[in-house]
């Protein structure tokens, strides 16, 4: 996407772009885009992502709680609803196709990387609303970037398994919610001292790296050693 200079979100984007590029080049995403990803790896990803999203949705609930006005609160309620009932419904439908019940999905044992990612975010969310948004933003923004790039890749939307996933993350609805979060990040960063901006940048960089690790974990089908 085109991103104008001078906005805090632009600074965030530039500072982590290398990490995002590495995600885009990860075999999980390359094989998914080309339609060759092993379905076993995809199911593993879906199950981990389902329990990830349960905690991720709480970030929006916390955002609502920390909102300075009703308009912001309403938007966070929309994001909360959309995660639980739209994004997670995609996972439930995929699971059904693979004969995985809702109960099994919900009882997925979070992998070490899933635990690291969700606990990091929820811990950061104990701080200001700006910290909540800086921590959750790579999740939305990087998926929008991946989804829109995949949608343009020849043949990707014809794939019988990955089509719905690509449609979800390249959709206008998902893009609009992502843009709203980016705009909110910019508004919340306005006038903050450099020391606080650095803290926000650290959250954004850490969850960007955790996004990379999440793809890697899914590709390796990471398990606890015992
Ligand atoms: C790990 C992860 N990151 C981002 C998204 C997109 N909400 C997701 N479903 N899962």
Automatic annotation (TrEMBL):
- What's a GO biological-process term for it? thiamine diphosphate biosynthetic process
Query: What are the alphabetically sorted keywords of the record?
Result: Hydrolase, Thiamine biosynthesis
User: Which InterPro entries does the UniProt record give?
Assistant: Haem_Oase-like_multi-hlx, Thiaminase-2/PQQC, Thiaminase_II, Thiamine_Salvage_TenA
Gene3D superfamilies reported for this sequence = Heme oxygenase-like
Task: Quote a single Gene Ontology cellular component term.
Answer: cytosol
Pathway assignment reads: Cofactor biosynthesis; thiamine diphosphate biosynthesis
Q: Does the keyword Aminoacyl-tRNA synthetase apply?
A: no
Q: Give the signal peptide, or none.
A: none
Where do the Thiaminase-2/PQQC domain residues begin and end?
17-220
Write down the EC number.
3.5.99.2
Q: Which GO terms describe its molecular function?
A: thiaminase activity
Kindly give the CDD domains that the UniProt entry links to this protein.
TenA_C_BhTenA-like
Q: What does this protein do?
A: Catalyzes an amino-pyrimidine hydrolysis reaction at the C5' of the pyrimidine moiety of thiamine compounds, a reaction that is part of a thiamine salvage pathway.
Assembly and binders: Homotetramer.
What protein name applies here?
Answer: Aminopyrimidine aminohydrolase
Show the taxonomic lineage: Bacteria, Bacillati, Bacillota, Bacilli, Bacillales
Gene assigned in the entry: tenA
């Amino acid at each position: 996407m085109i991103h104008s200079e001078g906005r805090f979100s632009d600074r965030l984007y530039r500072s982590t772009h290398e990490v995002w590029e590495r995600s885009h080049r990860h075999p999980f995403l390359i094989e998914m885009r080309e339609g060759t990803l092993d379905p076993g790896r995809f199911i593993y990803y879906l199950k981990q992502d389902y329990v990830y999203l349960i905690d991720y949705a709480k970030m929006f609930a916390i955002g609502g709680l920390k909102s300075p006005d009703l308009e912001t609160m309403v938007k966070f309620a929309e994001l909360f609803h959309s995660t639980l009932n739209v994004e997670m419904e995609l996972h439930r439908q995929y699971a059904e196709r693979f004969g995985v019940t809702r109960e099994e999905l919900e009882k997925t044992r979070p992998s070490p990387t899933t635990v690291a990612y969700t606990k990091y975010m929820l811990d950061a969310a104990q701080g200001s609303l700006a910290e909540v948004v800086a921590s959750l933003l790579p999740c939305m923004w990087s998926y929008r970037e991946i989804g829109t790039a995949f949608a343009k890749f020849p043949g990707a939307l014809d794939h019988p398994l990955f089509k719905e996933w690509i449609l979800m993350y390249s959709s206008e609805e998902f893009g609009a919610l992502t843009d709203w979060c980016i705009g909110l990040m910019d508004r919340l960063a306005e006038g903050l001292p450099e020391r606080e901006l650095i803290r926000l940048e650290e959250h954004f960089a850490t969850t960007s790296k955790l996004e990379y690790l999440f793809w890697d974990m899914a590709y390796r089908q990471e398990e606890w050693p015992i």
